[in-house]
Design a protein that fits this description.
Distance between the termini: 49 Å
CATH topology of the largest domain: Rossmann fold
CATH superfamily of the largest domain: Alpha/Beta hydrolase fold, catalytic domain
Oligomer: single chain
Strand content: 15-25%
Structural class: alpha/beta
Number of domains: 2
Helix content: 25-40%
């Protein structure tokens, strides 16, 4: 609560900042004198067009000429939030601000996303969320830094960026957007829930907004797929076999054999059909313990005492993507939640987790790590718009959890029709986490959002493409949930023009729109 009060106080103070709006825009270098509450401008300089290698290292990015401002915000005595604002020359500015995202628990500014934004004419804003690195040790004995990561840094970045843009160009941005995926999707939803006036519209991709339950899901699935001494049960070859078999079993459920599972909720592939007939263990079958492990991942995390579902399982068709977060790590991924954020014990052992008692305890300690409020009335009332999407073969964030969130918002917002007036959700068949996969995985969600916010044109479909070796070989429409894409019966099945968005009927089939 203390962090929230500090943030609200800064929101009030920023509108009273010391530099007034000027009719003539100051030079980039003059922005160094801008005074902001609890924020220090560390540099402001013109950057020439060409390749740029960030001071933190990493890959260089190509940029146009722009003004680069760096600042440090310290809303608490234990906060040190790095913020950068990149602004194109006034003649190239599109009058908009775009907030950029972070991945995982990353403490790195997304320079590639900022470069893309400024190249498209946006003033771009980014932050390191108050720490460096992607592990969770930063929160050990630093509760304010956890709050910074959870929501405060993104909010302060929006406020600082708007004021800096005002002083550089002489006016506030006409429209402000945020676009992110994974943790960025959580950041987008957190802004909508906690600070509905920060952005006019957000893109929330594959959102990890149910953060605590997601980490419980990682823990559950890692335990299921490893022996008691931590040895993995499933090899990459076994996972490839599972994906191939699941797709073969469920591909045609949407009426088209194209190597894509249209909706994994309609897929009931049983891994037991792959169980080895004898004691043999090879890449063409699964042992009984392996079958049991896979079923646990599909079924999701449960309270082992009561049987209560705690978190949705991973989708059939996502298995080949399990290694980074489920099968390959030497210990449960994001174990820092328990060691560093909650139990404050670097030696905490995953074997001690009590599925009956510890879930509630963890959620009571750091509830703000998640962004799961279903009450979006304030954002809707101020005219805000949301475009959310998720890959239906996402191996990181189970797509069914994202579907659950959207349906819960719809119930809280007066039904699906009322919700679609401000919030549209686009499931992406065959797409993995934030891209990749066998399905269409490249599309312009931000462009669709802009058309909605600026011209009142709600996206009835978004055309997505899939490429192989740099060549587009498939396009499909993404349909606003609960509509689904179905082939019209004529023309190439690789062309989005030959598909319609139709309503699903009972049993998972579909009917043409009325």
């Amino acid at each position: 609560m203390r962090g929230l009060l500090v943030a609200v106080g800064l929101a009030t103070a920023l509108v009273k900042a010391s530099v007034p709006v000027q009719s003539g825009a100051p030079t980039c270098a003059q922005l160094i004198s801008l005074t902001l509450p609890d924020t220090t401008i560390s540099s402001a300089e013109d950057v020439a067009a060409g390749p740029l290698t960030p001071s933190s290292g990493g890959r260089g990015v190509d940029v146009p000429r722009f003004c680069r401002l760096s600042a440090i915000a310290a809303p608490t005595s234990d906060s040190r939030i790095a913020i950068e604002i990149w602004m194109p020359t006034p003649d190239k500015w599109n009058d908009k601000l775009l907030g950029t995202d972070n991945g995982g628990f990353s403490g790195a500014i997304g320079y590639a996303a900022m470069a893309s934004a400024v190249s498209r004419g946006y003033a771009a804003a980014g932050t390191d969320t108050g720490h460096s690195g992607d592990q969770m040790e930063f929160g050990r004995a630093h509760p304010e830094k956890i709050v910074d990561w959870a929501y405060r840094a993104i909010h302060l970045t929006a406020e600082v960026a708007k004021l800096v843009v005002r002083d550089h160009y002489g006016r506030f941005p006409e429209h402000s957007y945020f676009s992110g995926c994974s943790t960025g999707g959580q950041q987008a939803l957190s802004e909508v829930q906690r600070y509905p006036h920060d952005y006019d519209g957000v893109v929330a991709g594959d959102p990890g907004n149910n953060r605590l339950r997601l980490i419980f899901g990682f823990l559950w699935s890692w335990i299921a797929t490893h022996t008691s001494d931590g040895a993995p049960l499933l090899t990459p070859a076994k996972l490839a076999l599972l994906t191939k078999s699941a797709v073969a079993a469920c591909d045609a459920h949407d009426g088209l054999r194209d190597g894509i599972i249209g909706d994994p909720r309609e897929c009931h592939f049983d891994p037991a059909v792959l169980q080895c007939s004898d004691a043999t263990d090879n890449d063409s079958c699964l042992t009984a313990p392996q079958v049991a492990a896979v079923k646990k991942v599909y079924d999701g995390a449960h309270n082992e005492k009561t049987g209560e579902l705690l978190f949705r399982g991973w989708a059939r068709g996502s298995e080949q993507g399990w290694p980074p977060y489920i099968t390959a790590p030497r210990e449960p991924v994001r174990i820092g939640l328990f060691r560093d954020f909650v139990f404050h014990d670097p030696g905490w052992d995953w074997r001690t987790f009590d599925w009956d008692k510890d879930v509630a305890y963890v959620e009571a300690q750091v509830p703000y790590l998640s962004a799961v409020s279903h009450d979006l009335r304030a954002f809707n009332a101020r005219g805000g718009k949301i475009v959310m999407y998720t890959g239906l073969a996402d191996p990181v964030v189970p797509p069914e959890d994202t579907i659950d969130y959207y349906e819960a918002v719809a119930r809280a917002s007066g039904g699906m029709r009322a919700t679609q007036k401000f919030f549209r959700f686009f499931p992406v068949p065959g797409m993995a986490h934030c891209g990749g996969g066998v399905g269409p995985n490249t599309f312009d969600a931000l462009g669709a959002l802009e058309q909605w916010v600026e011209h009142g044109s709600a996206p009835a479909r978004i055309v997505a493409s899939h490429s192989t070796a740099g060549r587009v070989d498939l396009t499909r429409p993404l349909c606003p949930y609960p509509l689904v894409a179905r082939y019209t019966g004529s023309g190439s099945t690789d062309d989005a023009a030959n598909f319609s968005c139709v309503a699903r009927t009972a049993g998972g089939s579909a009917r043409p729109p009325s």
